[in-house]
Amino acid sequence: MTTPDSPVLRVAGRPVGRYVTRPELPARLSPRPYLHPVTTLAGTAVTELSPADHLHHLGVGVAVPDVEGFNFWGGRTYVRGQGPTELDNHGAQRHSSFQLRDPDGFVEELRWIAAGAELLRERRTVAATELTDTAWALDFTFSLTNVTSDPLSIGSPATNGRPGAAYGGFFWRARKEDRAPDVFTPSADGESEVHAHRADWLALAGSAWTLVFAGATEQTRRDPWFVRTGEYPGVGSSLAHTERVPVAAGDTLVRRVVTVVADGRLDRAGAAALIRKAVSL
Fold it and tell me: Which contiguous run of DSSP H or E holds residue 213?
C-alpha cells in the first residue's frame, strides 16, 4: 500500500519496491531514505534492511562514509592510524519533497545535514521500467550540490588509510542466502577479480535472481566497483577510490547507475543483453 512517506514502485502494475522517505532510525545508523524491499517481477526479495552483520546497510540508496569528516554511511568511522572508531559524527539525509511522483518513479529533493548545518542538497531521480516478462530496470540518479560557502570533499575509508575499502556512493545491500552469490563482469569472475576494478557492467547472481549494475554516464563508469560476496552480498560504486573528491561551493556531483533486476540466474551473455537494453532506454 502506497503512503505519502513510503511510495511503492510498480512495473506493469506489479509492486517491485517500497521507498521509505522518513525512517525512524538511531543517529549512529546515519538515517536516510532507502528502497526496501526491492523484488523481482516474480516477487523474490533482492535487498536486506539492517541485517545483523551491518545494521547500517539499508536496502538501496546513497551512503557516503566521509563528507568533510561527517559520516553519512552509518556505524563506525575509519580513523587513520586508529582503525574503525565510534564517533559522534553522523549525518542524516532528510527528505524535503517530491518534485514528481508516479507509480513507476519519482524525483525527490533531500538535504544532507550534520552538526545542525546543511552540507549538501540532493536531487534524486528514480525510475522503474519493464524489460521482459522476467526482468525490469531501476534507473537511479543522484546529484549532490555543495550548498555551503566553502569547498567540501568526499572521502572513504580507503582514502583515510584502509586499503580496499573505497565504499561510498550508490550502494545495494543484496539478499543474503546460504551460499554466497556469484559475481562477474564482461571479462572477470569472483570478488577478488572484480572488486576495486572498473567494468562496463557487473552482475551478482543468487539462487534464483540476478542483479546487473552499470554506470550510465561517462563519469559514473570511471568509478571502480565496490563488491562484497563472501562476508555479505553488496555492490556499490566508489566515489572516492584513491583520492578525496572535491566539491567546490555551488558545484554539483552527479552519478547514475542502472540496475537490471531479473528472475533466474543469468549467464554472461544474458546479463550483457539485458543491461544494454536497460541503459539504452
Answer: strand 209-215
Instruction: Write down the pTM of the prediction.
Output: 0.97
Write down the pLDDT at residue 5: 78
DSSP per residue, 113-154: EETTEEEEEEEEEEEEEEEETTEEEEEEEEEEEE-SSS-EEE
Q: Are 39 and 12 in contact (CB under 8 A)?
A: no
pLDDT at 211: 99
Mean pLDDT of 229-251: 97
Distance, CA of 75 to CA of 53 (rounded, Å): 11
Residues 231 and 212: beta-carbon distance below 8 Å: no
Dist. CA 260–CA 172, nearest whole Å:
12
> Which residue matches cell numbers 577478488?
192
Calculate Rg over the CA atoms of the chain. 18
Measured CA to CA, the distance from residue 90 to residue 72 in angstroms comes to: 6
Conformational region of residue 13, where left means phi above 0, alpha means psi within -120 to 50, and beta covers everything else:
left
C-alpha to C-alpha distance for 78 and 139, rounded to whole angstroms = 31
Give the pLDDT confidence of 30-82 residue by residue, as tens digits: 999 999 999 999 999 999 999 999 999 999 999 999 999 999 999 999 999 99
> What are the φ/ψ torsions at residue 185 (nearest 5 degrees)?
-120, -175
In this predicted structure, the answer to whether residue 196 has a pLDDT above a threshold of 70 is yes
Torsion of CA 18, 55, 70, 199, to 10 degrees: -70
Measured CA to CA, the distance from residue 151 to residue 249 in angstroms comes to 5
